[in-house]
Amino acid sequence: MRRRQLLGLGALAAAAPLAGCGKEYRSDDAVPPVVPPSAFASGEAVGGTPVVTAGGGAVPFEPGKVLLGAYVDLSGRSVREGLDLRRRQLGRPERIVHRYYSWEDELPVGVPYVSSRSTLMISWRGPAYREVVGGGSDKLIARAARRLAERGRPTLVRWAWDMNRDFYEWGGPANNRDTAGYITAFRRVHDIFADEGADNVSWVWSPNGTSRPGEDWNSYEHYYPGDEYVDWAGVSGFAQTQTPAGMFEEFYQTYATRKPIMISEVSAIDRGGRTKPDWIASFRTWVKAHPAVGAAVWFDTDTHPTSRENWRIDSTAASLAAYKAMSNDPVFIG
């Protein structure tokens, strides 16, 4: 299986626009205040807006704590070797280990490199909607559900992510703008898992923070399967010059009253100087100011086949230091 089929950014070429929108980030930008512990207990965000204080399904949301994890794929290292390097650098294992699987892949039962302190997140590619909604994939879905049920451990499943972008076969743009078809497909996959007893699966619904095309019909709200089908509301974004607020605030304000929030894929381009470490520090502060955020998953790689960008947390010593400071923060669970 080709890596291009596995990764979540298959159309992210170096010249292509990255996810996210909003004003350009500068190191002297004002950042939101850090929310005191009492606000997490009462479920209040910045400005006193009530947000969720429970949820997450089989992978529960803990108010005031953020599961910090990553997709780790490092040049010249196996997955295990890459995770071991990060454990040595950070002094702890990743709390979420993110991996990608194609639609017809056999989903894993045992994953030896996922430690007992880590939760596996599977980003599982989808097909065109008709392959699901017509029942033609029911056996494939049921087989996947039985394997994850056999796994026994709480597992995050992020099915058919970035559906509001124009480069995936499961996206609305590739399916005649049929956003309702995505909802029907998501619900069918979810229900088959339930029928097969895969109650250890926690469902992550995960659009991109920026729709492409940026037309009303393609807004992520039109793809939402419904509260009963979603455990975590996830959003992905890759910063060029945008602030974390510019990328994620609108999504947060839309769903934080309903579901725990996951930043399900995130990284930043290094534009020289302290741009990347400063962005990491800004992201840390933004997350701490938004108590419904319960998980953040970095895109930690230098091997993406269509991008020359080095997304690694240790692309520079200053970037690694900023990431370690976030990892060591008591809010980000170690």
Brief synopsis:
This protein has 334 residues and is α/β, with parallel strands linked by helices. The chain has helices spanning 3-6, 37-42, 79-90, 130-133, 138-151, 179-195, 244-255, 275-288, 317-328, and strands at 66-73, 96-101, 119-124, 155-159, 201-205, 232-239, 261-268, 293-301, 332-333.
Q: Please, could you describe this protein's structure?
A:
The chain is of the alpha/beta class and 334 residues long. It has one domain (3-333): TIM Barrel (Alpha-Beta Barrel). Helices cover 28% and strands 17% of the residues. The protein has nine helices and nine strands. A nine-stranded parallel β-sheet has the order 2-3-4-5-6-7-8-1-9. α5 packs across α6 (179-195) and α8 runs parallel beside α9 (317-328). The two termini are 33 Å apart.
What secondary-structure arrangement, pairings included, does this model have?
Elements: H1 3-6, H2 37-42, E1 66-73, H3 79-90, E2 96-101, E3 119-124, H4 130-133, H5 138-151, E4 155-159, H6 179-195, E5 201-205, E6 232-239, H7 244-255, E7 261-268, H8 275-288, E8 293-301, H9 317-328, E9 332-333
